[in-house]
Fold this protein.
Amino acid sequence: MQTEYCIDSTCKTAFELGFGVIIPEGTFTTFDNGPLDAAELCEFYSSRIWNRRFASVIPFKDLAKLISA
């Protein structure tokens, strides 16, 4: 699944339906696309589109703590 298509659409749809969305850092990927390479696209979506707007993007170890609590 590509960050800028599947993951982005799922995140925004879940947000619109009222779900609290958590996306663990480094758990999504994509391909180079136009002027940005894959790593830049992932960083762009996680830090500038999703985090603190549509989702909480957190380190995976923090998610593990939330699950076990």
DSSP finds three helices and two strands in the chain. The mean pLDDT is 95.
